Amino acid sequence: MESADSVRAFHGAGAPGGPLAPIYHFNATRFSALLPVGGTVVDLFCGSAQTLRRLLVGRPDLRGIGIDLSERMLETATANLADAGVHDRVQLRRGDAAQVETLITEHVDGIVSLSALHHCPTEQDLRSVLASIARVRDRDGSGVWLFDLVRPADESIIGLIPRAHEVSAGAELDAAFKRDWVSSLRAGWTFEEFRESLDVAGLSLESVEANYSQLHWASPVSSTGTAAEWDGPIPDRADVARADALAAAMGFA
To answer: Which end of the chain, N or C, is surrounded by fewer C-beta atoms within 10 Å?
Structure first.
C-alpha cells in the first residue's frame, strides 16, 4: 500500500469513528494484557502506526519498534507518533518482515501484526514471515498477536461486507478505503490456509475466527514482569460498542 490516496484513506480509517478504530481498540487492549511492564513490542507491517500509537499511549511503560516497507507509510507513522507524544519511545525501521530476527537484535516481549498479513503475495511469503516470527519467539519467548481479515468462500459476499458496515454506521466509507477493503478481502487468507501456514512455519498459536476476521496469539513464554493496567483514553462510545462486540464474537467477553 504505497499510493498517497491509499495511505491517506487507511490512516484516516483508524481515527475515532472510523471503520478500523474498534479493531485497533480491541487488539491494543487485549494484546496489552500479555505484555510485561517495561516491555518492547514489535509491530510488523506497522503502516501508519495506529496500533503502536494506541499501545504506547495506553501503556506509558512500553517501548515500540515498527517495521514496514513503505516509505510513505513510515512518513505518516512518524507524524502520527509525534502527534501522540510517544515518538521518543518508538523506532521505525524500513525492512522485510521475513527477516525480523536480523532486523531486531533487541529483546522482544511481543510481536503484533494487525490487518496486514493478507498483503503477503503468496503462501510461501506468508510462511516466511511466520517462520521469522517463530525464530524470534524461540529466541526471546515473545508473545505473538496476529489479527487479519478472512477471505470469504463466496466471492459474491465480498462487496457486501463494506456495504454492511456503511448501513450499520449510517455513513458512506471513503471511496479509496472501500476499494482497498474489497481488494484486501479478495487477497486475504482463509482461516484454514492461515492455520496450515502456521503449522508449516512451526509457530504454535491459539486461533479463533469470527465475523470475517481471524486472530492467532500466544502469551510470552516468560516475562520480566507482570502486565500493567491499560491507561489509554476512552474511545468514541460507538467504537467501544463495536470493539466489545468483536471481543464477544472472538470469545474474549
So the answer is: C
